[in-house]
Specification:
The complex is a heterodimer of chains A (90) and B (181). By secondary structure, chain A is of the alpha+beta class. Chain A is built from two helices and six strands; from the N terminus they run βββαβββα. Chain A has a single domain, classed as Folate-binding superfamily (Folate-binding fold, 2-Layer Sandwich). Chain A has helices at 34-42, 82-89; strands at 2-5, 9-12, 17-21, 50-56, 64-70, 76-81. In chain A, the strands form two sheets. Chain A has a four-stranded antiparallel beta sheet with strand order 3-4-5-6. A two-stranded antiparallel ribbon of chain A has the order 1-2. In chain A, a hairpin with a 3-residue loop joins strand 1 (2-5) and strand 2. Chain A starts with a strand and ends with a helix. In chain B, the strands form two sheets. Chain B has a six-stranded antiparallel beta sheet. The longest helix of chain B is centred in the last third of the chain and has 17 residues, at 163-179. Classes of the chains: A alpha+beta (90), B alpha+beta (181).
Chain lengths: 90, 181
């Protein structure tokens, strides 16, 4: 598997660290109820199909990236910097 | 007061000459990481040009002026190798002295590319990785900074604590490449 780092370019999967669902970018506000926080912290889907995950280019530039891919076909649809996604959502 | 003797990271390990390749410890000079503060990149770029004659490097590139090098070193970071940073730079960027933190080796020779091909998961052939190109990547299991200094010459930086492993891994690859000659 290869991922295209938005900064470094096309790189081997071994350079990347897998963090998990990119839900971390959608942090609820402090006043959200306990149920919302419980879901944010603990509950994850385990889809066979499209996922949106956070990875870090650990052995390269160090950037956190959001990867859209398919766990069944292994196709990678897109990669973008988590920072730009976070700023767009803020 | 104890008398302490300074040692370089690869003291006692290098130089090596195997087949058509030499591996020697490099002295890149003083190393300073330069990380621009948010919004400070433009002002830092101007300050670097006026103080050191160096342009801020694009990702995977190195700027050179005389003995001074500015090596791209990661997202929003470059490594100034050679001179001490001009004091004015601190206004626009976080400057960190890293001189003793890295082991630096110089790999040179006709088979240098073949040696690195055994250890590095990116294409370092000249068509893709020309003189002045650099990359943060892996060498074996170590994170490294690899820069092409000449047609058959590379500068490799790894964490200082990894100096022994780096020399061991490179020596194994050097011997394997030489054995096929």
């Amino acid at each position: 598997m290869r991922l295209t780092c938005p900064i470094c370019g096309d790189r081997d999967r071994r350079e990347f660290y897998y963090q998990g669902d990119a839900v971390a970018l959608d942090r609820p506000d402090g006043g959200a109820g306990a149920e919302t926080w419980d879901g944010y912290v603990h509950l994850r889907d385990n889809p066979a199909g499209r996922t949106r995950d956070l990875w870090q280019h650990e052995a390269g530039c160090g950037a956190w990236i959001v990867v859209l891919r398919d766990t069944v076909s292994h196709e990678v649809f897109g990669v973008e910097l988590a920072m730009s996604v976070g700023e767009a959502g803020a | 007061m104890a008398e302490l003797t300074g040692k370089t990271p690869c003291d006692g390990l290098l130089p090596l000459e195997i087949g058509a390749v030499t591996l020697v410890e490099a002295d890149p000079g003083r190393l300073t990481s330069v990380a621009p503060y948010r919004g400070g990149a433009e002002a830092l770029g101007r300050a670097l040009v006026s103080a050191h004659g160096l342009d801020w490097p694009a990702p995977n590139r190195m700027s050179v002026k005389g003995a001074a090098r500015l090596i791209w070193f990661g997202r929003d970071m470059a490594l100034l190798a050679g001179p001490a940073p001009a004091p004015g730079l601190a206004e626009h960027a976080a400057l960190t002295d890293q001189s003793d933190a890295w082991a630096a080796v110089d790999l040179a020779g006709d088979d240098a590319e073949q040696v690195l091909a055994r250890l590095v998961p990116i294409d370092l052939r000249a068509a893709h990785f020309a003189v002045g190109h650099t990359a943060r990547t892996l060498i074996g299991h170590m994170t490294a900074s690899i820069t092409r200094l000449g047609p058959d010459r590379f500068l490799i930086l790894v964490f200082r604590s990894m100096a022994g492993t780096l020399v061991h891994d490179l020596k194994t690859a050097l011997e394997a490449v030489a054995a096929r000659r």
